[in-house]
Specification:
By secondary structure, the protein is an alpha+beta fold. Helices cover 42% and strands 20% of the residues. The protein has six helices and ten strands; from the N terminus they run βαβαβββββαααβββα.
């Protein structure tokens, strides 16, 4: 059984499921941050006037909330002269905020939720989990932290992952600069607070 949690707070709901359904292996429980991942790809595509399929390897770190960190430090865009780092072409505080607040902006503009976008992203998530990611490309998934990137173990946290044979694996060894470190820690703190609150209610 493979489980994708979509309902908010998705990360903490997935963690509660992991704790109270011990028969399901933790590797089989994930939450949806692909929606945020796809939004980041879309924002880069729009700003650079390139097809979204030419952009790859953005990362959504942390919580599916406004504390998430959309990271383009390792993302690339295909150009006639080869792949170019996205950070040399587009990166500013406005980009990060736009991705963080995109869901709220859609609701405000349409007076409706972004449920269709979430459904499409859920399909992308399951497809890559089951069929595998393209070689050289990673995606973002909320998965059970093993302490990678100094993220506290015991949280469901969005990491860059690759998928093969129906299993996900956290991408290791990516350099994290000081700015990014603060962002990773901030969203981890929020998840720790959510976890404590949820457990206090359940106890």
């Amino acid at each position: 059984m493979q489980v994708l949690v979509v309902a908010n707070p998705a990360n903490t709901n997935a963690l509660i499921l992991k704790e109270f359904a011990p028969s399901i292996p933790e590797k089989n429980i994930t939450c949806l941050t692909r929606l945020d991942h796809n939004r980041a790809l879309g924002q880069i595509s729009e700003r650079l006037s390139v097809p979204v399929c030419d952009v790859k390897n953005v990362i959504i770190w942390g919580n599916h909330s406004s504390s998430q960190y959309p990271d383009v430090n390792h993302a690339t865009v295909a150009t006639p002269s080869g792949d170019k780092p996205v950070r040399e072409l587009v990166l500013n505080a406005e980009f990060i905020t736009t991705v963080q607040q995109r869901g709220a902006a859609i609701i405000k503009a349409r007076k409706l939720s972004s449920a269709l976008s979430a459904a499409s992203s859920a399909c992308d998530h399951i497809r890559d989990w089951v069929l595998g990611t393209t070689e050289g490309t990673w995606v973002s998934m909320g998965v059970y932290s093993d302490g990678s990137y100094n993220v506290p173990a015991g949280l469901i946290y969005s990491f860059p992952v690759t998928c093969q044979n129906g299993e996900w694996k956290i991408v290791q060894g990516l350099p994290i600069d000081e700015f990014s470190r603060k962002k990773l820690d901030l969203t981890a703190e929020e998840l720790s607070e959510e976890k404590a609150l949820a457990y206090s209610c359940l106890n």
